[in-house]
Recover the amino acids of this structure.
């Protein structure tokens, strides 16, 4: 698998069908935590954060991954941090054996509330991860609406959940820069493409002040989401 810095699955080989029963198209665009046992979330997120702190590093860890039939598999994951160089983390999964957990607890509809709690737990941990970063992070839906923005993104671009990318506050970007962001976002949406824009301060001899990275989160036009990451220069 290839994953973005927040555990979103960017690409997946066909072999995942043999190991975990999932169709690759089902996994692409989803979040890793949605398939990891809730009791293992804290451990996995902590290890993931530690790996991101060391570009080029490789880690090996074990946790429980949900099989398509609703059961849990003990897996060994090897994560290679290629995020700074290639924009993704390369993850290899090896199935060890079936876990002892009751598969019906989350997988096959016996308890809808258990499944809901799993998703909400994953969302909370993703937010904790994003808030710990020094750069801004905003998830953007197909219509251009921001579905999540961490506090750093709010400071740098004035983005909050619910705001549209067309409505970036004028105090952050002028009309020309806003149009450039909108144009690049349209081009990468539905792809795994990336675009980088530099914002300059016209009042100070065009000094670069802000770097905005836009990254599409899919390799198929059917999954239309993107990531916006502003940072100071």
């Amino acid at each position: 698998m290839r994953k973005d810095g927040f555990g979103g699955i960017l690409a997946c080989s066909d072999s995942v069908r043999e190991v975990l029963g999932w169709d690759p198209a089902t996994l692409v665009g989803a979040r890793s935590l949605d398939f990891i046992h809730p009791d293992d979330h804290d451990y996995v997120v902590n290890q993931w954060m530690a790996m991101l702190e060391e570009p080029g590093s490789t880690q090996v860890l074990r946790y429980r991954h949900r099989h398509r039939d609703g059961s849990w598999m003990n897996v060994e994951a090897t994560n290679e941090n290629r995020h700074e160089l290639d924009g993704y983390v390369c993850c290899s999964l090896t199935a060890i054996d079936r876990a002892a957990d009751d598969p019906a607890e989350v997988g096959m509809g016996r308890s809808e509330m258990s499944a809901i709690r799993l998703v909400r737990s994953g969302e909370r941990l993703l937010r904790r991860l994003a808030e710990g970063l020094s750069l801004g992070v905003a998830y953007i839906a197909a219509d251009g609406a921001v579905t999540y923005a961490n506090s750093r993104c709010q400071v740098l671009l004035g983005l909050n959940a619910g705001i549209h990318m067309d409505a970036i506050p004028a105090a952050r970007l002028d009309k020309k820069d806003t149009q450039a962001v909108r144009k690049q976002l349209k081009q990468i949406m539905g792809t795994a493409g990336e675009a980088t824009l530099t914002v300059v301060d016209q009042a100070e001899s065009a000094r670069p002040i802000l770097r905005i990275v836009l990254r599409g989160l899919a390799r198929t036009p059917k999954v239309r989401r993107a990531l916006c990451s502003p940072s100071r220069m």
